[in-house]
Amino acid sequence: MRSPDAAWSLLEAGGPDEVTIRAVARAVNVSHAAPRHHFAGRSALIEAMIVEGFGWFVDALQAGWDSQEDPVAAFTEVGLAYVRFARTRPQVFQLITRPERHFPHGREDAIGEAAGRAFNVVLQGVEECQAVGAIDEGDPRMWAFVAWSGVHGLATMLDDGIAESVGIGDADELTLLLLAGMGHGLFSRRRMPDVTGPEPGLDWLRTRTAPGA
């Protein structure tokens, strides 16, 4: 079930603690009991928001994958999309990636399924990179989890302000450097480009797939 727009406005303005059945009802000027016709309580509302948020996240990752024909370039775009989502929608990112704050006794089945759809985009990338020999053989789920862990760690540190606190800035550049570093092991059969320049941008995504790269 789609979450009320008011719930998302409350989340963006003040974080998940601001999202309550009463606050949503007040925001849309209905009785406190009205939202309960759709959501049994706050937990049900938060669950619906996490599932919906994961849908937006999956769309962003898939768009990154679809933006390039070369599997390695496309897989890199998925990593960039991951970090950009965390940077542009921090409250949504925190909500969907830290559900244990709201469900300490375990995730709801619907949340696990939503997270699985996001992981499957990464898994698809690994499998297609393996198919062209860009990633070594082996369990693609293991490779996908390693890739996911690296990018998620960077996204989380950026989201927490750690990079900014030590004077490190551009998120895209950091993501490219991370992916290049990971690539020396992950993309073990393809030479990774030097992206240590001040503004590497995305040009290397094209040059790295040129003949002789």
Description:
By secondary structure, the protein is mainly α. The protein has 2 domains: 1-39; 50-207, Tetracycline Repressor, domain 2, CATH 1.10.357. 64% of the residues lie in helices and 0% in strands. It has 10 helices and no strands. It has helices spanning 5-14, 21-27, 42-66, 71-88, 90-97, 109-131, 140-159, 162-165, 171-186, 203-207. Helix 4 (71-88) crosses helix 5 (90-97). It is globular, with a radius of gyration of 19 Å. The termini are far apart. Residues 189-202 and 204-213 have low confidence and may be disordered.
What is the count of DSSP helices, taking H or I runs of 4+ residues?
10
> Roughly how much helix do the residues carry, as a percent range?
55-70%
The CATH architecture of the largest domain can be named as Orthogonal Bundle
Listing every helix as H and every strand as E from the N terminus to the C terminus, the arrangement reads: HHHHHHHHHH
Number of separate strands: 0
Beta-strand residue percentage: under 5%
Q: Would you state the CATH class of the largest domain?
A: Mainly Alpha
Looking at this structure, what is the CATH superfamily of the largest domain? Tetracycline Repressor, domain 2
Give a short summary of the structure:
The protein has 213 residues and is mostly helical. The chain has two domains: 1-39; 50-207, Tetracycline Repressor, domain 2. The chain has ten helices and no strands.
